[in-house]
């Protein structure tokens, strides 16, 4: 079943001052440019020009002075690299500014670059900070500080939420100087949280806690989202919402396309790869003479499915396939459109914001949010053919809607009607079930902040945390006071202490650090608990990794456990966990039980997975109602055991949404 989707039009501003640099701002972009509200939600479709809206507000505001520091937080490194190129182009062509870029791939001539000027565009991710530290023979924090000391009229810093969170947790050397140089020396400052709709649960709670502490350092905070979000439930402040409404006239924001759907049993795995290969062949043959550089773009859920698909396509089209996923080093990935092959195969690493000019798009999606996110990779520059794979359960309902010619708004409504919409759990961060997360955050400060670099026992850490709380040393923001009061009326349990030592923005077992040692040089990336049966690996401590002369990248510098991955299993077993279900029904408790494999049995895998999950917070749900929650099926008694930081969100679901 297929449908023809009309182009999406957005109206243009009719104010003469909103035309500059050969560009006339769209109406919603002009509204952002003149908005002086300290908190703004910008809701605009993917590909509609939110980046230009941010820059117009920061560099050429209708009212007030330009911003000295603009920090844009992107959820993925792939999006950071893509936006680096897009921002540089806008800054030079539209704003007529001279740009000095500081990133991991251009440090060889760093000392020869200007130390002052119009704009410094700094890519502040783990790769760049590690490269800066190596270049300067210092720590990442000291190297970061030296770059920030350069005198530019404007500093635009592109980073990910993890780096910002590490700053918040006092994980860098020269921390106080770093924060002073970043936020306080030369205001005004602006913070942009792009693709904000992608955060949920555990990561959203930690992001909210961080924002309550750092918000006063910014004169303006902009939340960018592809869908409207009631952010007042999160930030407890007044904010202004600016929406990019479709129009019957104006400028094309998203081109038209033809879309078809196909059912699959669940997720695309090895059994469905041949179907995807056939779809790629069909699209490639149809569009081989099209002018677009990329003829076929494929986005799948699993890295391992991408690897399988890549190998099969390489056999048919040698030299024409470009992979973009966690097993491809950033240095080996294309940085410009010209470097892509005819066929691009990737995972969620490219679903968020990466700007492709592609003739056709093939993707899988299990919910409405992922569907719309991946659909936004197509029709950005020209018309496009789209093929979507969705679970067979939802296929009949969606095909009822996909008929004839539709507007993009009608398609969006059809997708939201037919496919499940992932919960955002906006009330979770302030719920009593989230109190242990706040406890873990404060305990982390006690354990890790540089007060003499002491090693504290559990009892000492708890006593010191309570003393600091009673003295008011945590400077708890007003909206966190009720949650903190609840947190400090209970003694931290073993789960809280474990989380405090593993504190990060993301849930523990959703992002497990791994070394793919079969590559030369070895590649560091994250894998999730559900992917473990597909991997041949050993669990290693950080000390074992460094002892083998491997340098742990900045983004993983605070991890204590790694997977040493030596290969991929072609016949992965099924995993389940054997526990006393009554013990894990009321609240998260440390996991004790056993990992069981079957079809086939693999005792070695059971032992290695158990090393990772033992003692992690765990709680039972009746079913895996949200695929984003990390866990395992329970072997006997039924249900799904959510493991890691996500267990607290599952507790919230049991108490409030069951």
UniProtKB/TrEMBL annotation:
Pfam families: Cas3-like_C_2 (PF22590), DEAD (PF00270). It comes from the Archaea. PANTHER family: ATP-DEPENDENT HELICASE HRQ1. This is Type I-D CRISPR-associated helicase Cas3. GO terms for biological process: defense response to virus; interstrand cross-link repair; nucleotide-excision repair. InterPro entries: Cas3-like_dom, CRISPR-assoc_helicase_Cas3, DEAD/DEAH_box_helicase_dom, Helicase_ATP-bd, P-loop_NTPase. Residues 31-246 form the Helicase ATP-binding domain. One of its GO terms (molecular function) is ATP binding. Keywords: Antiviral defense, ATP-binding, Helicase, Hydrolase, Nucleotide-binding.
